[in-house]
């Protein structure tokens, strides 16, 4: 899952980026409103964590113009402890949820998973499809009732493909979900993960759509 973190406080930004990366998220971090808009225009994200007090363009403006473009990207706003009015404004401008500083990283990760899940139209926390079960909170996986050992990146590939069965994801789209800015991407990394997953799930669970990308079919 790829996140855009918009936070001008260096210590918080570094801590959140590091913590969420350890939790298996790919995180791009920008420190002002203008850079957030550039990143939103250039990349595709699964969720944005948005501090509201920002230099250049404040968080509310970033959020307002995102929603004005009819972009339904899930947004969690980050506000100061006693800023009730700010939280209300954030939610009324189109945020999906909020956290209050100082927040707990595990709680933040859980809120991100919840808003992304709701956008995908799922109420259940576990993804179940064609005998596969994935729990994004614990990274536990099973296939046809047996536990499945997956690396963090194999899990991320499979989560991206099974969250929207039938949707084709290109190699570049999968790479975007796996790696944040500044992380080294091996040129054939996605192929290597797909190959590894096919060894564990059988060759036809993930289909190759020639010249386009990969998909998990809606049904067998
Ligand atoms: Ca701030």
Quick synopsis:
The chain has 220 residues and is of the alpha/beta class. The protein is built from eight helices and eleven strands.
Account of the protein in words:
The protein is an alpha/beta fold and 220 residues long. The chain folds into two domains: 2-119, Rossmann fold (3-Layer(aba) Sandwich), CATH 3.40.50; 127-215, Arc Repressor Mutant, subunit A, CATH 1.10.10. The protein has eight helices and eleven strands. The protein has a five-stranded parallel sheet with strand order 2-1-3-4-5, sandwiched between helices. It has a four-stranded antiparallel sheet with strand order 6-7-8-9, with helices on one face. Helix 2 (33-42) packs parallel to helix 3 (59-68) and helix 6 crosses helix 8. Bound molecules: calcium ion (CA).
């Amino acid at each position: 899952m790829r996140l855009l973190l918009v936070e001008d406080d260096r210590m918080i930004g570094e801590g959140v980026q590091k913590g969420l990366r350890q939790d298996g998220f790919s995180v791009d971090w920008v420190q002002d409103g203008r850079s957030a808009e550039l990143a939103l225009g250039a990349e595709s994200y699964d969720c944005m964590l948005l501090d509201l007090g920002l230099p250049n363009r404040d968080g509310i403006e970033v959020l307002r113009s995102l929603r004005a473009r009819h972009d339904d990207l899930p947004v969690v706003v980050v506000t100061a402890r006693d800023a009730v009015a700010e939280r209300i404004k954030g939610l009324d401008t189109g945020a999906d949820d909020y956290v209050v500083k100082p927040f707990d990283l595990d709680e933040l990760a859980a809120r991100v998973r919840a808003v992304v899940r709701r956008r995908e139209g799922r109420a259940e926390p576990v993804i179940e499809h064609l005998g596969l079960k994935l729990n994004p909170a614990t990274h536990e996986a099973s296939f046809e009732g047996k536990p499945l050992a997956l690396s963090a990146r194999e899990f991320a590939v499979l989560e991206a493909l099974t969250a929207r069965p039938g949707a084709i994801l290109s190699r570049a789209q999968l790479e975007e979900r796996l790696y944040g800015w500044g992380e080294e991407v091996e040129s054939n990394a996605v192929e290597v993960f797909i190959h590894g997953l096919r060894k564990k799930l059988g060759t036809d669970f993930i289909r190759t759509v020639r010249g386009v990308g990969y998909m998990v079919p809606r049904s067998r």
